[in-house]
Write a structure and sequence with these properties.
It is a single chain. With 161 residues, the chain is of the alpha+beta class. Among the domains are: 25-59; 61-121, SH3 type barrels. The protein has helices at residues 2-18, 25-59, 111-160; strands at residues 66-69, 74-80, 86-92, 95-100, 104-109. Strands 4-3-2-1-5 form a five-stranded antiparallel β-sheet. The radius of gyration is 37 Å and the shape is elongated.
Length: 161
C-alpha cells in the first residue's frame, strides 16, 4: 500500500504547482485574438466591401445596362422594377426573359455608372482643365511666334541677296 501512496502524492504536488499558471489565461488567448484580427482585415472586411458594391450596383441597374448572370448569360436590361425580385432582360433581338435579380453576378456596362464617373471627372477636372487650356494656349502661341520670326528672317535674307 505504501507504493500506491508514494505514487499518488507526487501527482498531487504536481497538480498544485500547475495551478499557478492560471494567471496567464490572456497570454494564451493572444495568438487566437491576433489570428482573428488577421482574418478580419484580410478576408472578412474585403468580402463585406465587395458585397456592398454588389448591392449598390444592383440598385443602380437601369434600362440598357449589360449584365452577366450566374448561368453565364450576357443580357441587356429591358425592365427593372425595384419593388420586385424579377427583372426582364433582352438576350438578343426580340428574345426577352424574366430573371431573378439575385442571379445577376456582374454589371458589364452601366449607363448609370458611366454617368456618375463622367460627373465625378467633370467636377474634378473643371478647375484643372481651365488651367491646362490656358497653359496649352500659351505653349502653342510661343512656337508660332518663333516660326513667324524665322520666316521673316529668311525672307529678309533672301531679299538682301
Amino acid at each position: 500500500m505504501m507504493n500506491l501512496m508514494d505514487m499518488l502524492i507526487p501527482a498531487a504536488h504536481a497538480q498544485a504547482a500547475g495551478g499557478a499558471g492560471g494567471g496567464n489565461f490572456l497570454v494564451s488567448l493572444a495568438p487566437f485574438i491576433g489570428i482573428f484580427f488577421i482574418f478580419y482585415f484580410m478576408i472578412i472586411r474585403p468580402q463585406q466591401k465587395k458585397a456592398k458594391l454588389q448591392r449598390e450596383s444592383m440598385k443602380s441597374l437601369r434600362r440598357g445596362d449589360k449584365i452577366l448572370t450566374a448561368g453565364g448569360i450576357i443580357a441587356t436590361v429591358v425592365k427593372n422594377q425595384e419593388d420586385s425580385d424579377e427583372m426582364e432582360v433582352d438576350l438578343s433581338n426580340d428574345v426577352r426573359v424574366k430573371i431573378l435579380r439575385s442571379t445577376v453576378t456582374t454589371v458589364l456596362e452601366s449607363k448609370a455608372m458611366q454617368a456618375n464617373e463622367a460627373n465625378k471627372n467633370n467636377k474634378k477636372v473643371k478647375p484643372a482643365a481651365k488651367k491646362e487650356k490656358e497653359v496649352k494656349e500659351e505653349k502653342v502661341a510661343e512656337p508660332i511666334k518663333e516660326i513667324e520670326l524665322e520666316k521673316s528672317e529668311v525672307t529678309d535674307k533672301t531679299e538682301e541677296k
